[in-house]
Predict the 3D structure of the following.
Amino acid sequence: SMQLQNAVETAPKKLVVAEGAYSMHPDLAPYYDLSVFLPISAEKQRERILKRNAPAHAKQFFGRWIPFEQRYFDALDVRNRCDLILSADD
């Protein structure tokens, strides 16, 4: 629905996965025992976005969200603050 829902509190478990482009924000990162960065080539990223989105929505990704995400990664040096780097191309 592309709408935010009410917050849900959860108790920590043995394994908790926090996923998302902005999950390495400096306010969140100290709580992780392990962080993984998944770089992806522009070609593979484009292919996956086109596969899962209508053309108009995909256009928003290319023109708006990907540039925002890249600025965030660069400004906060996300890649170099992660413990492990694995390619998302495979």
User: Anything to note?
Assistant: Strands lie at 36-37, 84-85. Helices lie at 42-52, 55-75, 78-81. The first strand starts at residue 36 and ends at 37.
